[in-house]
Amino acid sequence: MRFRQSILLFIALAACAALTVARVATAAPPGPLKLPDFASLANKATQTVDITLDSALLGLATGFLDSNKPEDAAAKEVIRGLKGIYVRSYTFDKDFAYPASDVDMVRKQLTAPGWQKLVVVRDNHQHSNVDIYICIDQGRASGLAIIASEPRAFTIVNIVGAIDLQKLHSLEGKFGIPQMQLDDPKK
Q1: Could you state, in order of their start, the residue ranges of all structural domains in the chain?
Q2: Coil vs helix vs strand at 157
Q3: I need a labelling partner for 39 at 20 to 30 A (CA). Which of 3, 67, 86, 156 fits?
Q4: pLDDT by residue (tens digit) across 60-118?
Q5: Integer Cα distance of 175 and 82 in angstroms
Q6: Is 111 left (phi over 0), alpha (psi -120 to 50) or beta?
Q7: Cα–Cα separations (whole angstroms), residue 60 to 51, 54, 63, 64, 143
């Protein structure tokens, strides 16, 4: 699990850097991805995270953030342009207890015009995959999707709306987005 969190943070940082070189695509801003009904998987999973925050709920949720705390103020600023945050994460006690076709169906949606593959990480030894896609609309990031899968877990994060990738890390640990810390290589 720590490997996945570390790799997601690394990828998020790479995504920020890659945004500066992303080409402009003309497409309608994306809505939330159509996620399969994972209800049957919830019964098999040892841990489940299912978060659906549309713009109304995001507005309500920001009321719980303290503007006097710098990290909460930064999170409020990022949320201001968002239309939704959707997280689905499942952990199992057996390898490949989930249908890979469900995860692949989500990946297929990200081949639509406007979506660009930003980062792909494959670890064949650990059978883990991480894909990050971004939707660019009129030169601005208007959607982000992260799909991370490994034998006993998968996570899908879909953020919809105007995204400042340089500030996106301020949402770590809030609204179901995992806190992702890299081990300090200097230690």
Answers
A1: 2-171
A2: strand
A3: 3
A4: 888 888 888 887 887 788 788 889 999 999 999 999 899 888 888 999 999 998 899 98
A5: 13
A6: alpha
A7: 14, 10, 5, 8, 21
